[in-house]
Amino acid sequence: MPTILITGFAPFLGHAVNPTSWLAGQLDGAVIGGANIRGVELPVTFTGAVPTLQAAVTATQPDAVVMFGLAYETDSIRPERLALNLDDAPAPDNDGTIRRNSPIDPAGPMGYWSSLPLDAMADDLTGAGFPVKFSRDAGGYICNHLFFGMRHWRPDLPAGFIHVPPFPEGLKPEDRGHRTGMVPDRLEQAARILLQRLAGSISIA
Hints:
This protein is an alpha/beta fold. It contains five helices and eight strands. Strands 1, 2, 3, 4, 5, 6, 7 and 8 form an eight-stranded mixed sheet that branches.
């Protein structure tokens, strides 16, 4: 049976609950599309995120990796096309570190494409009634740092990054009423659809 490793992040930047941590815990041990799902929470730090992921990959020996991150500003599922070789964000990580205009690996390439079947995943989600909005790249914070680090370390292993909305209770007071967020059951359903498609692509490969 193939294994898919999914990752979520700890709470950060005043977000008391990170839906991706919940998702990783919720699906850990599930079987989806004939694949065994393993989930792990990662720290929101430039120095800790990639090593923790590497340890999880080494321990579980997955056939693919799906990294999930919270994008507060969206109510859609947001697949990321590219991981850029750049740390560049004004916000501090959970260690208080800020990185601006800094290559992740000065000797590395400009970036990496996601190696997940993103278009097929998006079609499946849209067909099931989920809002989907593609993003060119995963930004300059820990999400992109992790995405680049994973692809740079193991370019042979199918891997990619998906941003998801906050839970409704995680919306700021000023955003309630004109934002929806995504309730846990719906987020889990969306993740299962993504993983079902990925499991199928692994078995075909």
